[in-house]
Amino acid sequence: MTKKLDNYLLSKLTRVFGCMLALMGVAGCDSDEPVLYGTPPPSAEILSETTGIVLDTEGEPVQNVEVSSFPTDGAYSVRDMQIVVSDGKGKYSSNSIIEKYDRKSSVSSTFKQLQVIASDKSGVYENDTMYVDVQLDSVATNKFKATATANFTLHKKRK
């Protein structure tokens, strides 16, 4: 009989403490923003479109070069980053979603450049990195579209 009573009391206490923890988690902070567990939602989302062409020093297209782009400002992080490969004409087009979590400064004042990296996995050409300015357009509240063009001229590796 005492075992049943102990289990009953433990069950009730667990529920009471669970409710108290839930209430403290929601109401335990004095803030204008809602209290969330885990990663906070981004303060802004940017659809980044980077396009360009990869050529060699003779002006011929270079295919199968991996191209990726990253924001240069540390307040931004890339979600769903795309590493794209240049086609037979040397062209590439990359779409990435970039998020900002810092609410202290506006997107238009800080999101100015992308770092774009071209990596030749065949080992024939030197890898290259460039920093390109972006064209930033607001499409909705806290949603932006950034477009950039990065054209690469890759040099053959010296043997």
Brief digest:
By secondary structure, this protein is of the alpha+beta class. 19% of the residues lie in helices and 42% in strands. The protein folds into two domains: 1-28; 44-154, Sandwich (Protocatechuate 3,4-Dioxygenase, subunit A).
Helix content: 10-25%
Give the helix/strand class. alpha+beta
CATH class of the largest domain: Mainly Beta
DSSP strand content: 35-45%
Radius of gyration: 25 Å
Q: Give the number of helices.
A: 2
CATH topology heading of the largest domain: Protocatechuate 3,4-Dioxygenase, subunit A
Q: Give the averaged pLDDT, no decimals.
A: 84
Shape: elongated
Instruction: List unreliable stretches of 5+ residues.
Output: none
Gap between N and C termini, in Å? 86 Å
Q: What is the count of β-strands?
A: 10
Order of helices and strands: HEEEEEHEEEEE
What CATH architecture of the largest domain do you see?
A: Sandwich
